[in-house]
Fold these 4 entries.
Entry 1:
Amino acid sequence: MTGAASPNFREERLSRRSFLVGSAAGVGALGLAGCVNSDGALRAEAAKIYGPMPNEKFPIPATDVSKVDPKYFRRTVAYETKAAAGTIVVDPRNFYVYRVEGDGTATRYGANVGRDGFLWSGDAYVGRKSEWATWTPPKEMIRRQPEAAKYARGMPGGLDNPLGARTLHLYQNGAYTLYTIYASSEPDTIGSGITSGCVGLLSQDMIHLYAQTPVKTKVVVLPA
């Protein structure tokens, strides 16, 4: 990603987490049929959904589900909306992303969102999609944090790349907004505001959403 809306970059160290902080599984699939109410059982089921993905270009390790509040695990929920099936709705106030299924339900994913001062709302659409995208820090970030200059020509895709395994690039009126929905390998960031306006899902969730999202899909970002 380029531009001011890049995932954040923490000044004290150059790492994937630095970049992030400074710059449909159904109800049954997660064992959420109403009879499971212990965190232990819930996390055990979630571990199956968020297991390793060894066949990726850069093999993805299992998510440490102990670092994620269970309310942010992927699940199917009742969701009444007039939006067409396939529409993506971002709810930054509650740290959720929804994929509308068109039958009164949606697939809901836990997310990290923009920190104070970087929140935005409005309608957009997926203008392009990327797998293991190159990340380029914006000029503003390089001026603020000169150590990022080493990636001025782009950081190749990989596990340490801030954009992760999959990226949906958001556009408005034919122009790239510089905002994305991206894959995060930082489970403890889910449910928090840490980015410069981008929206992060756990890698396994992002791959799940990405596979069902064609270019031109409408994205609605609700007010925070």
Entry 2:
Amino acid sequence: MPPAMWEVRSPSFWRAVFAEFFATMIYVFFGLGASLRWGVGPLNVLQVALAFGLAAATLVQVLGHVSGAHVNPAVTFAFLVGAQLSLLRAAFYMVAQVLGGVAGAAVLYGLTPAAIRGNLALNTIHPGVTLAQATTVEIFLTLQFVLCFFATYDERHNGRVGSVALAIGFSLALGHLFGMYYTGAGMNPARSFAPAAITRNFSNHWVYWVGPILGATLAGLLYDFVLCPRMRGLAERLAILKGEQVTHRAPGAGTEPAAKPGPVSGL
């Protein structure tokens, strides 16, 4: 049986994919909901940062052992760059995350009074910030977040202390505390796409895909090849990407083997 077919036929694989859909739906629902303006005055940036951070921390705690709780196509792409999950799993995760985000935004839209919905917390670039600056900000925001993801999910850190879920939540909150003023703090293409799709407003939307994907890629390469290198050959990395080999699965890759039963090695 082809490795990819083995993974698709595994119940654990589909549980993980559904977990990513469900987690992203919850993340977007609560995050966008906390970002709506219910009164006059400026938006409370601390409230928004805490809402997104606490949502991420909660979901990592609840579903981290099921799928890794990436809840973010950029995070999944970074784990793919680091050859920590198969190409097939990454593709299904990212589709599930985007669909989950849209579902969460749609539910929020239906539950919120028309006068309050506004642009549904759509990510927008500050008028004084250029597209190049906005993209660079998104790169840095996602870079620090994905580095935190990789470090806290790294199974080689036998002496690590503290809560993985809280570390990721704080990292996300940090990004919002800074990025809200520049770009609205996208950091997550699924989060940015959801309100854009519901409100049909895709102005400068590419920034919220290019920036996070580049930032995540840089973080994956920096962590896995410079800061904390994984001693694996090209053949082993390709085998993981193809889903041909069971590996030591970091929480970031969920609990399901890459493809077929066999000797444990790798990650």
Entry 3:
Amino acid sequence: MSGFDASSEGGSRGLRPVIGLTTYLQKAQTGVWDVRASFLPAIYFEAVALAGGISTLLPPQPVDADIAERVLDGLDGLVITGGRDVDPGTYGQQRHPATDDPVEDNRLRDAFEFALFAGAVRRGMPVLGICRGAQVVNVAMGGTLHQHLPDVLGHPRHQQGNAVFSTSSVRTVPGTRLAALIGESSDAQCYHHQAIDRLGAGLIVSAQDTDGVIEAVELDPATEPDKWVVAVQWHPEERLDDLRLFAGVVEAAAAYRRGRVNA
């Protein structure tokens, strides 16, 4: 699956869906500057472009439901990207020593993404969660996280450190949206020391790895057939030769756009 083709919609580039991607908020260095910044690795929006979508970046900012709705008015789909750990206070736990300190910028990003996700689900807007994004989706739906997988599994293979991705074999659950997109199994690029523990309401497991770790969840298509929400714990943007997940969200966003235009 190569992604959305505007030519199939009458050749109009104006029909390409706009995908909002959430961003980091933390200190960043560039040249002589060392400043607080909003940013996102280019590989994310390169994947969206290759899949046929148009990217727009969403910097964390103070937000309420009205602001979130205004942001979502300009989008056809939402990607909640990777990054620092979600504040464990949002799912009723004390911070594990290995969990990122929930400084103010982290809390700002958490609140921004929770508001965007809630608004997107209300609208039926397609959502793809990636790594931290999968954890945001689960926590937003009332679930919890394992804060440090080595404590659970006895090994650190899901996050080796030093920006080195590990490869995990994941197996999908038949009948899920994820299985329809990527088939029975896939080799996934992983870099996470946390994972989903208790599932959020309305979510189902759509993939696990050989350790039994939940590697993907989605809104149950049996009960929410009109809401496309898929969230994976791995990093599909690290494999630009395999655009199936990005093609999935872009195609779902194109359908969402058509529904808005024709309404």
Entry 4:
Amino acid sequence: MPSRRNTQASRWSRLAQRAVHAGWAWAQRTGSVTAERPGRFRFGALGTGTRLAFPLGTVFGEPWIHLGAYCIVGEQVTLTAGLMPDLDLGPEPILRIGDGVVLGRGSHVIADTTVTIGSDCYVGPYVYVTSTNHSYDDPHEPIGKQWPRMEPVSIGPGCWIGTGAVILPGARIGRNVVVAAGAIVRGTVPDHAVVAGAPAKVVRRWTAEEGWQPPLRTPPPVPIPDGITPEQLLALSELEAEAEA
């Protein structure tokens, strides 16, 4: 039988745990960045309904960062414009993120020169997008001290970028492209393609003439018809579970 002292300690432990969780939830709500509550950040543009989750990653050069409307930027996402803070980068934005973009937790978007992410792109967690790469031309100089190479990056609208993918300088990704998890992308990727590997290669592509090649192995998902209520969906799932039983 537990002693009174142990019971009391357990009760205080549960209360402390609840207090920590409640405090952290309050910090997440209060620390998130929106157009209405930008805090110390002065983005060049921050659209309606866009939210940067707390805690943020590294953010600097925000006057040259334009975020569209209804974007979701996950926790610990780094967004930078320029090589370092407090530079004057000129009159034009360096990092442009379209409407409805989702950036997964822990992702990095490093825009030392122009980076564009089109509308309705979904970026998984821990994706790395950069317009800069180290150079190693001089074999006698430490690589970290050599001037980096910079090339613009563009990601078309409607893309899906899988977890842990790396988008390298000079990448030009078309619209509605799937980048597989862990892929390393450089160069040009055509519209409506699936790329995978390191370096990434096109493994499937859609054209109006041939459709998907190679053909898809599974039928397309059936969308939920208009007018179906959550209660009807729940009842349907229960019927399916009974039928399987």
